[in-house]
Amino acid sequence: MRIPVGLLHQIATSLSRAFRKTFQEEYLAAKQNPKKWEAAATSNFGNMDLSEAKKILNLEEVGDIEALQEQTDKLLAMNEKKNPKNQGIGSGYLQSKILNAKERIEYEMNTSEGK
Description:
Helices cover 71% and strands 0% of the residues. By secondary structure, the chain is mainly alpha-helical.
């Protein structure tokens, strides 16, 4: 089955127009509200909110930096493939979620101290 070149050209043109339109809309939105977009661009924890971060790290309070570090280290070790106790089983995805949760809580701690 061969796809005609004209059809491929039409698909590529449509996709590039859609991408350009989306990019222009996002650019205009960023110009209108730069603080919102600046915060989104500088954070590595994505759309994770504080309650989700606390659930991931199994923390009830976010004020203790030592408990945060201890829990993070424990969970990262549990998901480390190279750890002999894990028998080669581990998840990079879970490790990234743990680190994002830690960053989110640290961010919350830093912003609450600044107030």
